[in-house]
Amino acid sequence: MLRNPRLRRRLYQIHLWIGLALTIPLLIACLSGAVLLFKYDFIRWTVAGADQELTSRSPAEIGAGLELLEQQFGTSLQTVRLADNRIGLDEAWLAGERAAYFDPVRGTVVRQWERRSDPFDVLFDLHHYLLAGDIGNAIMGTVALLAAVQILIGLWLWSWPIRRLRAALWPRSAKRSDLLATHRDLGAIALLPTLIIVVTGAVLAFPNGSRSTLTAILPGADETPALPQSGSGNVDWPAAVHAAASQFPDAQVRMIVWPARPNAPASIRLRQEQEWHPNGRTIVFIDPATSQVLATRNALSEPLGIRVANASYPLHAATIAQPWLRWISFACGAATTLMIVYGFIAWRRRLVPATYSSSVTVK
Length: 363
Known about the structure:
Oligomer: single chain
Number of strands: 8
Strand content: 5-15%
Strand order of the largest sheet: 4-3-2-1-5-6-7-8
């Protein structure tokens, strides 16, 4: 079957036209993603207090910090992500597309900004949404799915006849055959991590459909119960954080989410040691009227499909086993960028025949 010339020609044409269609969005994803991998490194260098190393905080200390934030921002507070090994500041998301960094040691706001004007927030929006909201998200999710197909077709085309790999970033010359050879070799070398990145990107773009699909095909049914009705009120955060931490004594409190509407619960996300997600996917729901626990969701006991979906973000964003995994992701992005460039140039030279000296090296 691998030697079937007709099938091979058809796969080659599919590979070519998918590649041409994905050229621009894949370049955008690769370049923006490469920068976002090092977002927190840049913040540690440029924002006061971001490079401080914090010891673990007690529920009382976390709750007191949240009360200070409420005094400064009031009802505009939506979500707070607590400091961790990436950045020594709490990060608050506010109403009106605003955000702030809060120093939990000094109890002060060190930076506020409009998310529409922040370079990293704009890059994030470009990477995930093409600056086009839900439509852009659907486009990028489709790009990720097509990229996975493209990778598998490329593997098929590369696998017969079997070629010797040449681990080099640059072609031997500017000839079309050498450009295509380097394009193929880079694809083969970076295949597995790149496939993981694009598949997890598709899962993140289509979370509901991905979770339903994964739960349907993997063992274990998703039987998440509906949340009980909660009351309204102002959450006593020291009491609420203590109640949440008591449910999972060995977990780290990572994120606090204010009620989205009246009679909706607040939620506190925790990270257990076995979880990959840096913000944790273990959730404790809090009744704002009593500041006590309404329900819990243990990420480690979720169905396998949900646990696989929960692993998508840390794999895609390379937050596991830092820093070496980030450098692998960066290398895959660079390899994919070069593959796109070499493949496009080779296609152009097929359309516009010319004589190229074999002594010219592409750099």
